[in-house]
């Protein structure tokens, strides 16, 4: 959405104080462990853009809370698996051999919006070490959430997602659907009979040298995320409201993952 259209769709400028008011009204509270997915343009014009939104979230949560966002870099992967867009087959080996390894500081996020990229560069934000599935976190439990992120099953039991699950954290969707709800990948990983696959990415090994490393994970797919999310909303209590102009939802992550886990189990057993 262009800036002119965003301005024309906004009654008054969004500020730190107005966004804090919206967050409080939706149910975001101090000391929460909160995983945020957002579309900045859906909120409307913000004085200060992504920086203002992040500051508002931090001020509401306080330093006793914890703010988490995805910092995924899906482009650090085998080019033979790329589809959006695909690249010529005679490029594959060149790309694979010369792709820079994942670096927590220098590797940018990839196609997940401006807010996560700004957030990962904020003061006191830490990032987990995973070439494609990393998360960034700020606040009291940030280090606990990002530490020891397993290369295998990057959205699984040894991932930041499962740390949020164990801490009974919440998910905040701002202007996005459940298709962006990464926690549903944790439900895929928790299904014993869910299809598995092998992937590979460049990382730094223990000697500080570049190495192409293969790893295992569930066959991640967002195909059913909106179906699962919509069915969950019909059967469970969650909070719905507006952040600026953006339709927003505050959801208990553990309840959603339990529901999705059961949904996937039933689908697999009936297939």
What is the compact description of this entry?
The protein is of the alpha+beta class and 271 residues long. 35% of the residues lie in helices and 20% in strands.
Low-confidence stretches: none
- Return the string of H and E elements: HHEHHEHHEEHHEHEEHEEH
> Could you say which overall geometry the principal axes of the C-alpha atoms support?
globular
Using DSSP, what is the number of strands?
9
Cα separation of the termini: 40 Å
Percent strand equals 15-25%
Largest sheet: 7 strands, mixed
What does this structure look like?
- The chain has one domain.
- The termini are far apart.
- Strands 3-4-2-1-5-9-8 form a seven-stranded mixed sheet. Strands 6-7 form a two-stranded antiparallel sheet.
- The longest helix has 17 residues, at 253-269.
- The relative contact order is 0.16.
- The mean pLDDT is 97.
- The radius of gyration is 19 Å and the shape is globular.
- It is α+β, with helices and mostly antiparallel strands.
- The chain is built from eleven helices and nine strands.
- GO terms for molecular function: aminoglycoside 3-N-acetyltransferase activity.
- Belongs to the antibiotic N-acetyltransferase family.
- Its EC number is 2.3.1.-.
Label this structure with key terms.
seven-stranded mixed sheet, alpha+beta, single chain, Amioglycoside_AcTrfase, 271 residues, 11 helices, 20% strand, two-stranded antiparallel sheet, globular
Fold topology:
Blueprint: H1 3-8, H2 16-26, E1 33-38, H3 40-43, H4 49-61, E2 66-70, H5 92-98, H6 114-120, E3 126-127, E4 135-139, H7 142-146, H8 160-166, E5 170-174, H9 183-190, E6 196-204, E7 210-218, H10 225-235, E8 239-243, E9 246-252, H11 253-269
Parallel strand pairs: 1-2, 1-5
Antiparallel strand pairs: 2-4, 3-4, 5-9, 6-7, 8-9
Protein name: Aminoglycoside N(3)-acetyltransferase
Enzyme class: transferase
GO molecular function: aminoglycoside 3-N-acetyltransferase activity
């Amino acid at each position: 959405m262009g800036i002119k259209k965003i301005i024309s769709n906004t009654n008054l400028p969004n500020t730190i104080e107005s966004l804090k008011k919206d967050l409080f009204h939706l149910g975001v509270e101090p000391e929460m462990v909160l995983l945020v997915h957002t579309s900045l343009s859906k909120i409307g014009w913000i004085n200060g853009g992504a920086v203002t939104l992040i500051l508002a979230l931090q001020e509401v949560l306080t330093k006793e809370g914890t703010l988490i966002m995805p910092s995924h870099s899906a482009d650090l992967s085998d080019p033979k698996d790329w589809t959006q867009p695909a690249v010529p087959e005679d490029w594959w080996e060149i790309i694979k051999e010369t792709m820079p390894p994942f670096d927590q500081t220098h590797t940018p996020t990839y196609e997940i919006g401006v807010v996560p990229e700004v957030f990962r560069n904020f003061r006191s934000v830490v990032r987990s070490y995973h070439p494609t599935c990393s998360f960034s976190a700020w606040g009291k439990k940030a280090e606990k959430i990002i530490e020891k992120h397993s290369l295998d099953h990057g959205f699984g039991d040894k991932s930041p997602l499962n740390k949020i699950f164990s801490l009974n954290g919440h998910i905040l969707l701002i202007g996005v659907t459940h298709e962006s709800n990464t926690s549903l990948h944790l439900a895929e990983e928790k299904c014993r009979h869910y299809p598995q696959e092998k992937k590979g990415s460049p990382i730094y090994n223990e000697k500080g040298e570049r190495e192409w490393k293969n790893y295992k994970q569930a066959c991640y797919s967002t195909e059913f995320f909106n179906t699962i999310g919509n069915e969950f909303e019909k059967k469970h209590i969650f909070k719905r409201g507006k952040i600026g102009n953006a339709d927003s939802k505050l959801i208990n992550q553990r309840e959603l993952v339990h529901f999705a886990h059961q949904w996937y189990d039933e689908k697999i057993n009936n297939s």
